[in-house]
């Protein structure tokens, strides 16, 4: 049976992430009848079993022999609820690492913002995740677990998934692809309801394109030229915008799916009219969509959120030049809002599912922002805020 590799501290391979056929083969390897595979599959993906001991349709004797075999589920370490009912979670994994995920509800959908790594190595200059440093890639089952955790906690089906949490998904491509397949085929979420976000890694977009997935590719651009982009995203010095866009165009050609460009608006850094003109020129004739994201300030970076007037003016400039653009308004914009901040300020003990703290030092945060940028903050002391005052308003 070929299942997902687990962290080195876990001795047995977790069952979460396995398909019905794989689970059926596994139970038969254990000397059990074939139909046990379907039972196991239903208990993992439909009933949310956290351990094999919970699967009461199995004999007690067999369950006792499987005590060292994990399903691969996490524990809710901390749970933060915003006034708009968005929920941000810190999940404790089998090796003790902590990962963030977010449940974003609306009247007709439930979106999960999932992480693909613990920490992030991209060292972007305006986001919180990388402050804690990069630890490791997440295994496929640890990504799938985030989706199931939100689904079970909200007691409703997850409809959409965005890979915009901690980490750079295309630096963990194999496990992300395994998780996408599982969430699609086993959890039952359509590929067109999934988005994979990336800052751009040379060659990785083309690798993703070869799989002919129907997911949305979201590229974190954040600047209309290489000079500014390299100041905001240090890794961009190895991946010029021209090369990035070339891979994006090939992605569109191979998949038939348009690309979304994420552009975090930083007050008087990348939100001038001239920069909007430049961005429009860069994307002209490209099958794409621009998501404008007003910045969510964090304590460790000296950037500010632009005024609504500046945000609207930037969007209008793009639209006037026939660039499809929308403004992604934040949800739950309050304390510990940005990706990585809640983890950095994590309490020492578990928060129960009812939201009550089990530690007198743990003060539940009451608000979050799931739509903050996924890129990592530089682990070095933050640079002075970039300003480009030479550009016209």
From TrEMBL:
* Radical SAM core domain: residues covered: 106-334
Name of this protein = Probable dual-specificity RNA methyltransferase RlmN
Q: InterPro entries, from UniProt? A: Aldolase_TIM (IPR013785), Methyltransferase_A (IPR040072), RlmN_N (IPR048641), RNA_MTrfase_RlmN (IPR027492), rRNA_lsu_MTrfase_RlmN/Cfr (IPR004383), rSAM (IPR007197), rSAM_sf (IPR058240)
Please list where the region (Disordered) is annotated.
346-393
Q: Which Gene3D superfamilies match?
A: 1.10.150.530, Aldolase class I (3.20.20.70)
GO CC terms for this protein? cytoplasm
- Residues engaged in binding [4Fe-4S] cluster: 120, 124, 127
GO biological process terms held by the UniProt record:
rRNA base methylation; tRNA methylation
Q: Which organism is it from?
A: Merismopedia glauca CCAP 1448/3
Compositionally biased tracts (Basic and acidic residues): 350-359
Write out the catalytic residues in the record. Answer: 100 (proton acceptor), 339 (s-methylcysteine intermediate)
The coenzyme or cofactor needed here is:
[4Fe-4S] cluster
Q: Which regions are flagged for Polar residues bias?
A: 360-393
What does the entry comment about cofactor binding? Binds 1 [4Fe-4S] cluster. The cluster is coordinated with 3 cysteines and an exchangeable S-adenosyl-L-methionine.
The record makes one more remark, namely: Reaction proceeds by a ping-pong mechanism involving intermediate methylation of a conserved cysteine residue.
Q: Which reaction does it catalyse?
A: adenosine(2503) in 23S rRNA + 2 reduced [2Fe-2S]-[ferredoxin] + 2 S-adenosyl-L-methionine = 2-methyladenosine(2503) in 23S rRNA + 5'-deoxyadenosine + L-methionine + 2 oxidized [2Fe-2S]-[ferredoxin] + S-adenosyl-L-homocysteine; adenosine(37) in tRNA + 2 reduced [2Fe-2S]-[ferredoxin] + 2 S-adenosyl-L-methionine = 2-methyladenosine(37) in tRNA + 5'-deoxyadenosine + L-methionine + 2 oxidized [2Fe-2S]-[ferredoxin] + S-adenosyl-L-homocysteine
Q: What is its main location?
A: cytoplasm
What this chain does, per the entry, is described as: Specifically methylates position 2 of adenine 2503 in 23S rRNA and position 2 of adenine 37 in tRNAs.
| PANTHER family linked to this entry | 23S RRNA METHYLTRANSFERASE, RADICAL SAM CORE DOMAIN-CONTAINING PROTEIN
What keywords appear on the UniProt entry? 4Fe-4S, Cytoplasm, Disulfide bond, Iron, Iron-sulfur, Metal-binding, Methyltransferase, rRNA processing, S-adenosyl-L-methionine, Transferase, tRNA processing
Gene of origin?
Answer: rlmN
Give me the residues that bind S-adenosyl-L-methionine, please.
167-168, 197, 220-222, 296
Where in the cell?
A: Cytoplasm
Question: Does Protein biosynthesis appear among the keywords?
Answer: no
Q: Which GO terms describe its molecular function?
A: 4 iron, 4 sulfur cluster binding; metal ion binding; rRNA (adenine(2503)-C2-)-methyltransferase activity; rRNA binding; tRNA (adenine(37)-C2)-methyltransferase activity; tRNA binding
The Swiss-Prot or TrEMBL record describes its family as follows: Belongs to the radical SAM superfamily. RlmN family.
What's the Enzyme Commission number for this chain? 2.1.1.192
